[in-house]
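Lab meeting minutes (informal)
Scribe: AK
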Amino acid sequence: MREVWWIHYGRYLHERLKGKPTQYITGRQEFYGREFRVTPDVLIPRPETEHVIEAALERKARRIVDIGTGSGAIAVTLALETGARVVATDVSLAALRIAAANGRALGASVDWIACDLASALPSGVFDLVACNPPYVPSQAAIQREVRDHEPAVALYGGDDGLAIYRRLIPEAERILQLGGWLVMEIGYALADPVSAMLGAWTDVEIRADLAGLPRVILARTRITQPRP
């Protein structure tokens, strides 16, 4: 038994020395007090993304969409913390399999949908859209263990890091009810350009993370007629 343990230990150590993230070696990552399964098919949930959860919880929404769900960390957490109806989308079928497995393991009721952003969702239905989009500029220098091991589709947001925001913001406006909320994670250098994209929205707010860097942006669709 001890020999088997040493064989596994040696393999894990070799993988770590090659830069493989510990979370992919153990297959686990904690997020908002819960343990999520992670593989190289999904981005490793970061503590900074918990600020998205905190901002979303304040909105007290009953119909929520998590766009680009990855491991399902945001969707599962919001489903369990709020009891709301939660829908989660991802363009990656492999990621959705991981997310659905996390939902089952943690007892969360989430509808998992394979589509690009919100393309398969109906208009004017949801109270809140949450998203941690890819926002790393394609030529940015990032840590080797991130660059070489985490999925590029979940990391890179085009040359300037803004490509997904340009598509996501109008999609979110389409699927939200009047007065609905959009809560997104942002890169620390993207607060101004993303804010500029929200010119037709109201109540735009930027929140910092524990390091004092801009991390979450919130915005509300304009109310042009009484809500039903």
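Next up, CB showed the second protein from the same session:
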Amino acid sequence: MRIAMVGQKGIFVTHDGGIETHVENLSKTLVQMGHEVFVYSRKHYTPMPKSGQAPRELKKESGVKGLKLIFTLSINTKYLDAISHTFTSTIHALFKKYDVIHYHGVGPSVLSFIPRLLKWRAKTVVTFHSQDRYHKKWGKVASKILQLGEWTSCNFPHKTIAVSKTIQRLCKMEYKKNVDFIPNGVVVRKVEGDEKIKKWGLEKDKYILTVARFIRHKGLHWLIKAYKKLQTDKKLVLVGESPYPSEYKDYLIKLARDNNDIIFTGYQTGEALDQLFVNSYLYVHPSEAEGLAITILEAMSYGKTVLISDIPENLEAMEEFGLYFKTGNVDDLTKKLKRLLEDPEYVRETGLKAQEFVDQNYAWKNIAKKVEMLYKE
């Protein structure tokens, strides 16, 4: 099959999020299964062609045979970037011989009616990744549009995928639609070494880790406040960046300013990120809103016990392989951190069980087969 991915920033992006990681791994795995995949990308997020290639060239080989990036235009502002890029990508897709046009996210799904009406031979699919309207970066108008996007996710495409059972229930109860549950996946691999983490003065099992974009609904301020109430020799490491210039990032830095054991690494990928995960003592995810957080699954795939906020989507991902705290409750988060810091044997054993669980239930090789079956339906 020839499959187009629409709605993501791109793959191999410089500031990725959960959707971008999802699309990258799904696309690579589908190509390994024999399909052709075309990923629509935004130039200002995705590494451009190397020297010798035209800077305005639309297509770029990804380095994976059968996987291509297609660059289309967008209006690079906070509120128009995603929807304008989805529009230009959709128009481009109308003139290509695709079997499936797969939209990612409720915002982009608003335009999924276009190929449904004008490109009859192609099938449209939408993945409902999260209830974006609850993300605090959006104003009232944007939130209303994203709420509309939830309805269009359920009603415009031939098939809708929910990445969590919580979202699947929402579609049934609020929008009266039965949708398919196919969770996010992770690439389970063995990682060794610690040379990449030494530049931050880090040692194995000597730090608590969180990985997230620096946006308010990720709850990083709750984690910093809780950590500062602890007496521990373990450091706190925050991996990530703000996708736009942000007062929230400035607030986090100010909040941590009087504690030298709170470390900001900036955005990390590849071997550095792998080593940050695998050498951490514990992974914490304090978010206030999610779909099915890939970073929780990734942490578990590295053999880490997780401590998460008690929103339903996070609890669904964790199963029994860690602890949870009341969302936004600094005292409860401090209490759970203290408990895990005092019980390294539990942390070690639970992490190993989590790794086995993720390998059996969330490996991309199995998730992509379910997506392929849905396409064939």
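CB comment: Residues 195-361 form a domain with the Rossmann fold fold (CATH 3.40.50.2000).
No objections, moving on.
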